[in-house]
Design goal:
- By secondary structure, this protein is α/β, with parallel strands linked by helices.
- Helix 3 packs across helix 13 (256-268), helix 4 (52-68) crosses helix 13 and helix 17 (342-353) runs parallel beside helix 19 (381-394).
- It has helices at residues 8-12, 14-22, 25-47, 52-68, 70-83, 94-107, 119-124, 126-132, 142-149, 166-177, 186-203, 229-235, 256-268, 300-304, 320-324, 328-331, 342-353, 370-374, 381-394, 400-413, 416-429, 438-441, 454-461, and strands at 87-91, 112-116, 136-139, 206-209, 213-215, 220-225, 239-245, 249-250, 275-279, 290-296.
Length: 462
């Protein structure tokens, strides 16, 4: 299976990538401002929802039921979707998914495709495969367009260009769209993007989308978004291709009632998304005349097989965990070396693509638990991080300094005499330790040991 984690070298060395990004004051300022805005909006709309915790629990149970019977729900979805005129394809990995999609487009003799909700295609690096086949992809989400025009990488799950400010975006549009007189207000930038995309919406005959949910009961696909570009992409083209991770299947249409309350509040601080597009197969004279859906595995069944981390697949990609995470808020998303960043990326990327490609990501967390508190589907990310760290240790892939430290601690704690001697050495060496642990003392003080240990106090008491 091909691995597509973005810059795999970065994914292996989160501390090194983060260290470089910490020096970019403008990026850190952009990230903090954007995440603060989303967090504050989310807090308001969640606070006015009296049954929020009940909704979270309902979502967790729906996801658990879907994963317990995933094979049945996937087959049910395929049957109903096919009956409605759709064509369902199964892709074991990224390369197979890309081959299927490129093959469909080439079979129709087309050379362009408009795209929306494209996180799964970022995961498989579909754009690279399309361009290699001579097919031009156009990202239509404003943030994804900014990333594409700037040849950049996404830094956030919901707001991929969150690390860019208005001035930087304006300069990019002036350079790439040839608009020297472009104004400075957000409305000016949105209007420029709208004009740039409008002609493509009306001309390009192939649309591509991801999906937020796929409903087994009805064979329906659901995309939620805020700009209207999604509605254009899934309704105007003659051929529509959707790629969705197999974990996005939910059992019934009524289940959407729960998720369409949780997702917008958690993702963007809105009570509901302005555009909720739901379609089932094809309808004569209405919308695309041909619909293909690619069900993507790409490591997901491997995650499903691990009972301790299976709930990772509950994720609905709201990014609430990123907005609250003290680590992400300092580094942004590029340090994670994957399309999936933040706390969810720290557990999802190693599982989807193998620990050897993301050894440091399970350690990219303070284990403060804030991500678990805000997760709308109650994924216990801290517990899974600990589980993955244990796997790294047991497989011999843990960081060298951690292994050395644990061996030293194990040796000292195996004997009361050794432990007492270690306590005395710590007190003696406290004032000399700083230069030997710069990774700690550059940003914080070493905790001062007590003048007298419990063991010494107890010995005197006796």
């Amino acid at each position: 299976m091909s691995i597509h984690v973005g810059d795999s070298e970065t994914a292996k060395t989160f501390p090194r990538a983060a260290r470089g990004l910490l020096g970019n004051e403008q990026l850190r300022k952009n990230v903090r401002r954007a995440t603060d805005t989303i967090r504050n909006k989310r807090a308001r709309v969640v606070g006015e929802t009296p049954d929020w915790e009940e909704l979270r629990e309902s979502a967790r149970q729906i996801k658990q039921r879907a994963l317990r019977n995933l094979d049945q729900y996937l087959e049910q979805f395929e049957e109903v979707c096919t009956r409605a005129g759709g064509v369902v394809h199964w892709a074991r990995d990224a390369d197979e998914a890309n081959r299927i999609i490129v093959g469909i487009i080439e079979a129709h003799g087309e050379k362009e495709v408009i795209k929306v909700k494209t996180m799964t295609s970022d995961e498989t690096r579909l754009n690279v495969a399309l361009e290699a086949a001579g097919i031009t992809p156009y990202e239509t989400d404003l943030a994804d367009l900014i990333i594409q025009l700037g040849q950049d990488k996404p830094s956030h799950i919901v707001v991929p260009a969150l690390h860019k400010n208005r001035t930087e975006i304006r300069e990019l549009f002036i350079r790439k769209m040839g608009l020297p007189g472009l104004g400075t207000e957000p409305e000016d930038l949105a209007a420029a993007a709208r004009t740039y995309l409008r002609e493509r919406f009306l001309r390009v005959k192939v649309g591509f989308s991801g999906a937020n949910f796929a409903v087994a009961e009805t064979g329906s696909v659901c995309v939620v978004e805020s700009e209207g570009n999604g509605r254009m992409c899934v309704s105007l083209p003659e051929i529509l291709i959707t790629m969705v991770g197999i974990e996005k299947v939910i059992p019934t249409f009524q289940d959407l009632e729960v998720f369409l309350q949780l997702l917008p509040r958690s993702a963007t601080g809105e009570r509901m998304n302005p555009y909720n597009s739901i379609w089932t197969g094809v309808t004569e004279g209405d919308g695309p005349r041909e619909f293909h859906l690619v069900l993507l595995d790409n490591g997901r069944t491997k995650v499903l097989a691990d009972a301790e981390s299976r709930e990772t697949l509950h994720c609905i990609r709201c990014a609430a965990c990123l907005n609250i995470c003290p680590v992400y808020r300092q580094t942004g998303g590029h340090a994670y070396g994957s399309i999936y960043s933040g706390p969810i990326g720290a557990i999802l990327t190693p599982q989807l693509h193998g620990m050897e490609h993301a050894q440091s990501l399970p350690y990219a967390s303070s284990l403060c638990g804030a991500c678990y508190e805000v997760c709308p589907v109650k994924i216990n990310i801290p517990e899974i991080l600990i589980h993955l760290r244990r796997e790294l240790v047991e497989s011999g892939q843990a960081p060298a300094m951690e292994k050395l430290g644990m061996k030293a601690a194990g040796f000292a704690m195996a004997s009361g005499e050794r432990f007492g001697a270690a306590e005395k050495l710590v007190r003696i060496g406290q004032s000399f330790a700083g230069p030997f642990v710069p990774g700690w003392t550059d940003s914080r003080d070493l905790p001062a040991p007590p003048k007298e240990s419990f063991r010494d106090w107890w010995a005197k008491r006796k």
